[in-house]
Amino acid sequence: MKQWKTILAAAAIALASSTAAMAARTDLVLGMPLEPPHLDPTAGAAAAIDEVLYANVFEGLTRIGSRGEVLPDLAESWTISDDGKVYTFKLHTGVKFHDGSDFDASDVKFSLDRARGENSVNAQKGLFAAIDTVEVVDPATVKVTLKNPLGSFLYNLGWGDAVIVAPETADTNKEKPVGTGPFKFQNWAKGSSITLVKADGYWGDPIALDKAEFRIIPDAAAAVPALLSGDVQALPNFALGDALAQVRADPRFKVVIGTTEGETVLSTNNKRPPFDNLKVRQAIAHAIDRKALIDGATGGLGTPIGSHFAPHNPAYVDLTGTYPYDIAKAKELLKEAGFPDGFKATLKLPPVGYARQGGEIIASQLREIGIDLKIIPVEWADWLKQVFTDKDYDLSIVSHTEPNDIDIYARKDYYFNYDNPAFNKVIDELNLTSDEAKRTELYKQAQKILADDAVNGFLFELPKVGIWDAKVEGLWENSPIQANDLTKVKWVD
Length: 493
Fold this sequence. Notes:
Blueprint: H1 2-23, E1 27-32, H2 47-53, E2 62-64, E3 70-72, E4 75-80, E5 86-91, H3 105-116, E6 131-138, E7 141-146, H4 153-156, E8 183-189, E9 193-198, E10 211-216, H5 220-229, E11 234-235, H6 244-248, E12 253-258, E13 263-268, H7 278-287, H8 290-298, E14 303-304, H9 327-336, E15 343-349, H10 353-367, E16 371-377, H11 380-389, E17 395-400, H12 421-431, H13 436-453, E18 457-461, E19 464-469, E20 472-473, E21 490-491
Parallel strand pairs: 1-10, 15-16, 15-17
Antiparallel strand pairs: 2-3, 4-5, 5-7, 6-7, 8-9, 9-10, 11-19, 12-19, 13-17, 13-18, 14-18, 20-21
């Protein structure tokens, strides 16, 4: 009997140890196709920066939740004056940066003034244009006065570009980011991975993960074996092409097809001939077969768009019929524009699958109307420099994943080189309007102007294809903002 008791006791201990071991897993490896150019969300346009750091390392006054809602973050509450111009934020106390320094109202003032300053390198500087003054009332209170009411102000403060940084570490965040979030930066192995670990003494809700590694896997073909072997446990936003069906059939994994804010466009340099000619742009729009493009570049998962707006937004207007696929009409417009035999141009493509695959398809489609495109593959850093910053391009393909970003077409010197006073007037009025019904009407007007002007080739809304271990919970199904928020992620039995 004693022998059986010993055996049972040993078995119970082994079972308890096994259960504890399974329950105790607190690490996660996530695969991502693009490596960030640096690690400062306040100084770069690349979505990959926020995909690692947003809500994990850096926090803002507000944050955007998984359903696109505005939530309090470093600001625990706020009040708004009757005229809609003065926002008074009450800050959480006891918050520290990862280097041990205290967070207070002076850090908020520094961050907002830095983002909107004359020498700002913030990629979304326009988010802060309405700010007139930022005042420190006391260490836990900040008063922001706007030049005019701005209905989207709290939402704007939830972008990654608006996170709060400390003056002592702001200049070194590109390589060694220091924030107030639940994770702190540990290591960046260039070309390989970025590792975050749980921050000691975090002020907010506790997190379940002790460690998260973002593994850089540019090639979907390499991501599949990494996932199947367990070397990588999550691919939060990773199209696998033909391999998707294989993973879907494997009960070890969850496959979640969600939505993004990624308007995928044939970016067009509107000031460079012949693309400064409306009829040329209209001809290109008529020559694009969106269905074939979506089937080839997204495995049929993308949603066609006819302007720069997400189909899940309540203010969305379906304008895909503005320039229906019509080769004869496209050729006629090119002839009217003075190019009966077509012309040659370049197509610069960043290293993401939808762009590289989509570029081949677009080039084939435009060849049918006489437009001969030379495809130039570029790395992400080169795309940001040549296309986004220097505007040295004819055409490109990219997804604009910033939330609700139709206003980029009103920004002076934005890389599309588009300038339409009528559109700018609509955006100016939108910025002054808080009434939701009126804002919806203005959004609809803005969409139609862009569609009519064929500013870009409006292609499709990028799908979010999430694949992860079936025992992982808490990853976002949709992407209302470019992020991999790990604050609620945990392993379950």
